[in-house]
Amino acid sequence: MLRIVYANLGYSRDINGSLAHHLSRLHHHVYTPRAAQMRSLEFVRDTMRRLKPDLSCFVEIDQGSITNGYFDQFPVLREDHHAFATIDNKYSGKAKFRRSPISRGKSNAFMATQPVEFTKRYLDHGKKRLVYDIDISGLRVLVVHCSLVRSVRAQQFSQIAGWIEERDAPTVLIGDFNMFSGERELAPLMKSEKLFHANRLSGPTFRFGPYQATLDTCLISQGLEQCCSIEIIDQPFSDHQMFKIDIALDGVAKLAANG
Fold this sequence. Notes:
Layout: E1 2-8, H1 19-24, H2 34-51, E2 55-62, H3 74-77, E3 84-89, H4 95-99, E4 106-112, E5 117-122, E6 130-136, E7 139-145, H5 150-165, E8 171-176, H6 187-190, E9 195-197, E10 206-208, E11 211-213, E12 216-221, E13 228-233, E14 242-247, H7 249-258
Parallel strand pairs: 1-2, 7-8
Antiparallel strand pairs: 1-14, 2-4, 3-4, 5-6, 6-7, 8-12, 9-12, 10-11, 13-14
């Protein structure tokens, strides 16, 4: 069994999405105190210790920016049993984005308990462009964080769909899709009928006061749904929920063999 944990950390600002938090902790968007960041990070670290994932994927993690006192959050989460880990600016691989006061430090990351092969890919449209393309235990895992603008998201979804078509491999596509207009936005990804929406019936993954939506999404290859289970885990220090995904590797092997 392969276990994947995914979470949008919200830069560990200690804002759970409630109106009370958004109002009382509005200043955390300008500067988040170290203690608030540690509360969030320690919860995530302790949750991972309990769940023991093989692959942990994060969006909205901070390598050190003006809004968090230039504190690198990643070492708090990485531990000795992680054989591989990487963190990268989510906007671009270009140096100017790593130096810009606005985009500096704003990152995505993943870590694994075994060595993995992966590629950093960048979407052609939007500001948030980084996509991790990871191979682990015969499974292809793509980690995304898509645009807030619907027309740009549509372009990004079409490009990601093309990347998925490049390889006939059991695939998990996971991340913050930001699809505020609902599941119909997934049409470019679903039209090939190769993907299954694994958390479609699992409830909302994002909250802003009374508003709730399924922004964080997990799509898997058709056939994997027979050997995959997904659980939504509450994050009390983020406005997004966490995913725990368990996939039976014998099912992955059978799907690959029939591919």
